[in-house]
Amino acid sequence: MKAAFIERPGPPGAIVYGELPDPLPGPRDALIRVRACAVNPIDTYVRSGAVVMPLPRPFVVGCDLAGEVVAVGDEVNRLRPGMRVWGSNQGLLGRQGTFSELAAVDERWLYPTPDGVSDREAAAAALVSITAHLGLVGRAGVRPGETVFVNGGSGGVGSAVVQIAKALGARVIATAGAPEKQALVRRFGADVVIDYRDPEIVARARAVVADGVDVYWETQREPDFDRTVAILAEGGRMILMAGRDARPAFPVGPFYVKGCSLHGFAMFKTSHSEQAAAAADINRWLAAGRLRVPIDRVLPLAQTAEAHALQESATVMRSGGLIGKIVIEP
Predict the structure, then answer these.
(1) Cis (ω within 30 of 0) for the bond into 294?
(2) Confidence at residue 318, expressed as pLDDT on a 0 to 100 scale
(3) Global pTM?
C-alpha cells in the first residue's frame, strides 16, 4: 500500500511517501480502506519529536481517518465489511497512524459515519470535535443558558467548540482575527465575535454579560490568565488544551477568590469509552447539519510533507495561513 511515514522524528521533509506492506488486522481490529484523513497540530509535534512517544518503525503519521471497513478480526463485534466509519486517536501512544491506503484500527476507536456525511467531513471533524466535546461536556459540564467564551473561534478546535457549545444550549462569545475569519465564526453560530487584537476585550465581553462568562475556552498556546479571570464569572471554569511549554503568570488571588476552576486535558489520554460517548453526540450533530468543521484544502497523500509544513507554519510559527483543516485523500 501507499503510505506517508517516517523512519525517525524530524522536520516535514522527513516524511516519505512510498510503499509499505499492507497491515494485518489483529483479533479486535478492523481493516479500513482510508478515504480521507486530516492533519492536526499534534501530528506535527509527534513527527518532529517535540512530543516524545513510542513509535513503530516505520511510523505512519496521522491521528484521524474516515473510510470503509474491508475486513474484521475474529473478536470484532460492532463492525462488518462495507460499513463506513470514522475515528481518531491513532498515531499516538505507540499506535500506528492513518495516512495510508489501509489502516488496521481497534474497533473501540471507530464510529459509524452517518448517512449524508462525507468522508472528508468526518475526517476533518474527528479529533477537533472529540476534543471540544471532552472539554465542554466532560470537564466544564456546560449547561443550557450558560455563556461560553472561545478565544480563537475560527480554528479547528475553536470552530468545533463554538458549534458544540451552541448545540448544548449555550450563548457563545468568540474571538477571531481577519474579517473573513470573524464572518466564518458568526456562521458557526457565535452570538458575539470580537477581534482578538482589540485591547478592550474584557470590557466588550462584560458588556455582553455583566457578571462574566461561565466557561472560557483557551485555544492559544500562551494564555493571558489576568484577562481570563477578569472575564470569568463567579465559579467560572477555564479549559486549557494547548501550550505545553507555556509558563505564563497566574493571578492566584483573583482566581481563588472568585471560586474559579481550571481544567487541562490531553485528548489522546482519555479512554476509548469517553471518546465513544463523545462520538455518539458528534454523529447526531453531523447528521443534523449542526456541526461542520471548515476545510481549508484537500491534498493527495503524496503531499503529506507539504501539509505538515503548512500546519506547522500556521500553529507553531503562527502564520495564520489556514482557515480550516487540511484533509488528505489517499
Answers:
(1) no
(2) 65
(3) 0.95
